[in-house]
Amino acid sequence: MYTKIITEEYIRERLKNGLRDDSRSPFTYRNITIKTGNMPNAEGSAEVTLGNTTVIAGVKVDVGTPLKDKPEEGSIITSAELSPMASDKYEPGPPTPEAIEISRVIDRGIRAANVVDTKSLYINEEKVWNAYIDIYAVNYDGNIFDAGTLAAIAALSTSKMPRFEDEKVVRENMGKLKINAISTSCTFAKVAGHILLDPDGNEEAFSNVRLTIANDEKYIRAMQKGLGGSFTPKELDQMIDMTFNKSAELRSSIKHAIGD
């Protein structure tokens, strides 16, 4: 775990001069690294480091039963685990509300952008493939949302597809999971009246409102507001414009990592 201990007053004074504790400008991401293939037993995997935040995502594809409202499609199921290894604010046990929110926000952006071609996961009337996306926080220093989305998309984009033959799952000579798009998310927080992209751990601790915007190359696909504060319509327009601007950089990082 890494979170530099500073005071809210210190952050406020820095922001008055247009700077953050790490000298970033308000709409600049921390350094991003993406590595794929770190979990050999998974169909696909990726590790993302965003500043001092590190997240790992693994994808497992297995046989399930079709949903009644989507009888000819498979499903994606996303979960997030926030372990004490990542931060002393996390505790062992069942998923916390924070972990559930993170998994739902990441899942919503992936579903709304139709990243996974769920129709290609159909096997027969009784069986479909389900893609399970498991996200693990290894080190926390803010913004698990964007780090988790990057890891999930990179893992999905490199995932192999097993075969179903003679009522058995065959994990040899696998093809590729069919992906329709690459989506990303940008998370903003308001600290002392200032809008900040990619908040670190201390900035998150002192923020009163948060917004995560997920999009693909053309459209905003999902939004999730957190905490009790608010944004003005002008601030919302600014964040949407910034999201489209920054998402091009994020997609480029993913494509470089997956060799596309």
Describe this structure in words.
Helices cover 27% and strands 33% of the residues. The protein has 260 residues and is of the alpha+beta class. It has one domain (8-258): GHMP Kinase, N-terminal domain (Ribosomal Protein S5, domain 2, 2-Layer Sandwich), CATH 3.30.230. The chain has a 5-stranded mixed sheet, with helices on one face. Strands 9-8-10-11 form a 4-stranded antiparallel sheet. Strand 2 (44-50) and strand 3 form a beta hairpin. Helix 2 (97-112) packs across helix 3.
Offer a concise description of the structure:
With 260 residues, this protein is α+β, with helices and mostly antiparallel strands.
Shape: elongated
Describe the main β-sheet briefly. Answer: 5 strands, mixed
Tally of helical runs: 5
**Proportion of residues in β-strands:** 25-35%
CATH superfamily: GHMP Kinase, N-terminal domain
CATH topology descriptor: Ribosomal Protein S5, domain 2
Task: Lay out the secondary structure.
Elements: H1 8-16, E1 32-36, E2 44-50, E3 53-64, E4 75-82, H2 97-112, E5 128-139, H3 144-157, E6 160-165, E7 168-176, E8 184-191, E9 194-197, H4 201-205, E10 209-215, E11 220-226, H5 233-258
Parallel strand pairs: 4-5
Antiparallel strand pairs: 1-2, 2-3, 3-5, 6-7, 8-9, 8-10, 10-11
Helix pairs in contact: 2-3, 3-5
